[in-house]
Design a protein that fits this description.
The protein has a four-stranded antiparallel sheet, with no helix packed on it. The protein has a three-stranded antiparallel sheet with strand order 3-4-5, with no helix packed on it. The chain is of the alpha+beta class and 155 residues long. β6 and β7 form a beta hairpin. The chain is flat and about 85 Å long.
């Protein structure tokens, strides 16, 4: 298991820096509490969340989501007010009634990811493709949001 070690900043000579450091320590302590670790590390409380990447080129915003083991029919994609939502449900493959389970790390159940897009897109031209467990949503930018080259005239 990997552990993160917090980097300690050398004390600065600011008058109220000690109070800010105390606040930061209190917040860190809150997140190090057992219940906070359970909420942060366990998917039982919030369901599972697929990883996704968002990037853009001059013409499109592209969203790629990892949805391994899902069927196309189990995935829903929608666009509303500049936000893209990807949701669905991954069902359990089989029950292990006569077997003892030693480890179960693959998540099943409902999920939903909603992300705000960085620029306006043409909703009527959005395309989604699902291949090898990766959902790729291509969202063409509106003409108004595309970068424009402006010619500089010499007078």
């Amino acid at each position: 298991m990997n552990y993160l070690t917090r980097w300690q900043r050398p004390e600065l000579a600011w008058p109220n820096f000690g109070r800010l450091t105390s606040l930061r320590d209190e917040i860190d302590r809150l997140f190090e509490a057992p219940l906070a670790e359970l909420a942060r590390g366990s998917q039982l409380l919030s369901g599972w969340t697929p990883a996704l990447d968002i990037f853009e080129d001059k013409d499109n915003v592209i969203v790629k989501a990892e949805l391994p083991g899902m069927k196309r029919e189990e995935i829903e994609v929608s666009l509303h007010d500049g936000s893209l939502s990807i949701s669905g449900e991954r069902k359990s493959e089989s029950k292990h009634e006569d077997a003892e389970v030693y480890r179960a790390e693959r998540f099943v159940g409902r999920f939903q990811r909603t992300v705000t897009l960085p620029t306006p897109v043409a909703a009527d031209k959005v395309k989604a493709q699902y291949k090898d467990g990766i959902l790729t949503v291509t969202l063409p930018k509106t003409e108004e949001s595309k970068p424009k080259q402006i010619e500089v005239n010499v007078s």
